[in-house]
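Hi F.,

I've been meaning to write this up properly since the lab meeting, where we talked about keeping a consistent format for the predictions we share between groups. The idea is simple: the sequence comes first, exactly as it goes in, then the C-alpha cells exactly as they come out, then a line or two of notes. No screenshots and no reformatting. I'm using this chain as the first example so we have something concrete to point to.
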Amino acid sequence: MVVKPQVAKFPSIQLDSGETLSEVNVAYETYGELNAECDNGILVLHAFSGDAHAAGISEEDGKPGWWDNMVGPDKGFDTNHYCVISSNVLGGCRGTTGPASIDPATGSPYGASFPLITIGDMVRLQKMLVEHLGIKKLLAVAGGSMGGMQVLQWVVDYPESVVSAIPIATTLQHSAQQIAFNEVGRQAIMADPDWKDGNYYDGSGPMKGLAVARMVGHITYMSDESMREKFGRRRSRGRTPANEVSDLFEVESYLRYRGEQFVSRFDANSYLTITRAMDSIDLSAGYHSFGEALARSEARYLVISFTSDWLYPSYQSQQIVRTLRSRNLEVAYIELPSNHGHDAFLVEVGELTELIRDFLANTFRVMIARRHNQI
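Output, unedited:
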C-alpha cells in the first residue's frame, strides 16, 4: 500500500510556555477508513526520531513506515476495522512546524529562536488534528517510548476523548540517567564547530555532532545481549575519513552508519527541542500527583514493557500500573521477554500483535455495549 503524506494547517497554537506559534503545519498519514460513527479512530504516536510515516510504503521515498509490522490489514492495529492516524510531532523536522520551519514574522528559519515546547504542546496539536479529521473520541491512543509519554499526556489532558490507552516501554518522568544520555547528545551537537548557536541553515550544520548524538542514543536502544549476538568482537574492513584502510570492529562501523543515515533526515535543532521536551515531562503539573491528574480518566489501559529494556526499564512501567490501579482504573500489564532492548517495541511483532489486537477488539465491543446500555 502506497501512502501519501498530508498536511493540516492551523492559524496558531498556544504553548505551555505562554508563547504562540503562528501558521502551524502538521504532517500526518491515515490508514484504513473512519466508520459512519467516527468512533474507530486510533492515534499512533511516534518515538523520538520517528515521523508521520508509520505504515505502508512512502510515496516520497518508497520506504516502509516505522511501525509497518503493526499497522495494516490483519495486523495489530487492523486497518480492516480501524482508521489509524499518525502525525509528526510539533518541533519535529518531517513536515510539522519545528525549528527548521520558516518563521512568518521574519521570513527565515526559526533556528535557535524556536520556543521551548512540551509533550503537552505536542498533544495539543494532535488534538487539533483529530478534531480537524472529525473525530471527537478516539478508540485508542498508542505509542512506545516518547510515544508512550504522549499517550499518558492524552489521558491527563483530554480524558473525555480517549476510550483506551496503550503506553509501551515508557515512563511517567525521565530519570537522571535518561536526562544524562540526552544531555550528552545535546552537548555533542553544540560542540560541533558548525553549530553556530543553532543558526546554521545557510550551511551544512553540525553534522558530525548530530551523528555522534545519534550513535550515543542508538547504543541505549539496544541491549548487551543483542549487541553481543549481532556484533560480538568481530572485525570488519572499513575506511577512515582519510580513506586509509583500517581494521574496525563491526559495532563501530554500524554506529557510524547509523549516525550518517540520521543526519540526512533529522535536524539538530529538532534534536535539542524534542529531547528537552522529553526531559521536562511532568504529567502531574498542576496536580498534587499523577494519580490526581488521572481523576477524570475512564479509559481502559494496556501497559507493556520488555525484560531487556534498560533505557525505559520495566520498573517505570510498573509505576504507571500502580498509579492507574490506585485510581481503580481497568489496567492490563505485561512484561514481554525480549533480548532486543528498548527497540523491542518496534521489532517484537508476534506477542505484541496478539495483545494489541485482542485488547482493541474487546475495547470496541465494550464501547458499543456501553453505548447501548448493555453493561
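Notes:
The mean pLDDT is 94.
The chain has two domains: 2-174+281-371, 179-276.

If this format works for you, I'll send the rest the same way.

G.
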